[in-house]
Amino acid sequence: MNTETLLTFFGALNHWITIFLIVTGLYIIVARSNMIKKLTGLVIFQTSVYLLYIGPGKVLGGTAVILNDRFTVYSNPLPHVLILTAIVVGVATLALGLALVVRIKEAYGTIEEDAIFEQDRDA
Amino acid sequence: MIELTHMPALVVVAPLMAAALCALIRHSRLCWWLATLTLTFSCVCIVVMGRAVFDGNVLSYAMGSWAPPIGIEYRVDALAAFMLGVVGFMALIVHLYGYRSVRAEIPQPLQGWYHAIYLLCTAGLLGMVITGDTFNAFVFMEIASLSAYTLIAMGKDRRALTAAFQYLILGTIGATFYVIGVGFLYLQTGTLNMTDLDTRLDGIMDHPGVLTGLGFLIAGLALKSALFPLHLWLPNAYAWAPSVSSALLAATATKVTLYLLIRFAYDIFDFDIALAQANWSFVLFVLSLAAITAGSLLAIAQDNVKRMLAYSSVAQIGYITFGIAVANLNSLTGALVHLANHALMKGALFMLLGGVMLRLGSVHLSHLAGIGRQMPWTMAGFVLAGASLLGVPGTVGFVSKWYLAVGALDAGHWSLVIVLMASSLIALAYMGRVIEMVYLRERPADAPTVTEAPPIMLAATWLVLAACIYFGLDTDLTAGLARAAADSIMDQPQ
Description:
The complex is a heterodimer of chains A (about 120) and B (about 500). Chain A is built from 5 helices and no strands. Chain A has about 120 residues and is an all-alpha fold. The radius of gyration of chain A is 21 Å and the shape is elongated. Chain B is an all-alpha fold and about 500 residues long. Chain B has a domain at about 295-494. Chains A and B meet through helix 3, helix 4 and helix 5 of A and helix 5 and helix 6 of B.
């Protein structure tokens, strides 16, 4: 493997991690029947998007947006703001999801989706 | 006297603030009145704004006085005004209907909360339509969706909980796909504002990054609007939710994501360049036909009438995306008219079933035998809305199917008209099953006697049914508005 290939690979490292997280998250959601694990997969899946936005917003050598004569190069603050919003949305989704799982556990006595579908079929 | 300046913000902010107030008050009756006032206020704003933009004007509102494209813009054009009208008025009427239905189906201590979440959901749906900012649309999408999951989970049957959980997982995946798409567009253009995106995308629409973003956007929005085969969350969610939730969501929720799809496909992207080149128009086309056929066929197999109507919704969504995929002025007008018309018909049908649920405690087909004589107004309404679903002339269903068929013929797709006719016949089969059961079977001797649904529920439902007939005869308002809206976003000559 020559240097150039390595540079291209590591130059896009954040994208590789993003793709890895997207696929991992989706796999967990599809493959697991346990509802808490499904929610975990969902959170991993959402986290990938945070990285997708924030990575390209960073300007090498740039600081945060502070009005001061000593700084001339700034990173783009907009992706950070967007992702702060997206994180809040993600937290709300997870909270609601967990609340639903609690209610499901009370109603069915299990949080395994397979077992729940079986109970519904018998009903 | 009526100040236009701040109306675009007030339409959304009023229900949002009222939702917070309701959550504090929590008194069922007070909350209902507060929600009624707020939703009426929003509807008045929508009518005033609609009159201002009907002749091609555009209202642009800079949120917090931060000028667009840096700040968030609220933008009302003919298309947005049309959709705001659909969402606002359906939300108001279903809410009025909920005066009795919520009291019957939601436990007493939760009724105030229910009204609060209902307002929150409406605010989110209105916000998705009115915003001119792609990321802001995501935030409103999540406000609407999170409240929709809660509205569904409040159903009496425990299956409502699993339905809400499944919807939460799939809905979040859909919304996240949408944000990934917006992210790709932002990386390529450096803007989130829809008007700004429109100009900056000129000339780079075949860029791989832009096309990837478009792919994620379409996949996400298709999942949210339950386009076949991504409809799996919908039937259970509509079937087990409380009646008011089913009526609101069936009438508005999927429609608003379809509105975003139209906005992206035609207004921001150029349909002929971006979507046709990447073969998206072909994919949408095939999926629409599959949705129309599979949705109608699956509907026949259902014994729960609410579930049957939910599968029929899957087919009707296929009609709308069909109009989007054929991509000429008539078909797009048909798609938009069908957005409004399907909101009316399905809203009315779910509201009628709410009355049946209240009196009978079940909407299972076999329990409905012979109730036509005991609930004459409800079942007459069911026949009327069913006729509209089939597309009988004189009802709204006919108008939209007419435009869709003319659009298909314009594009030279003779065979599609046959598919449209065939699916109407299948609709006759599944609506016919219910009507046969209700009118022609004898009520079993041991079955409890039921009475007609409460007046307020009937009045609200018949208001919608009257609209079904009125807009079927006088097509100036809906079809005229839809045509103006379709015209304004299809600025390129065919």
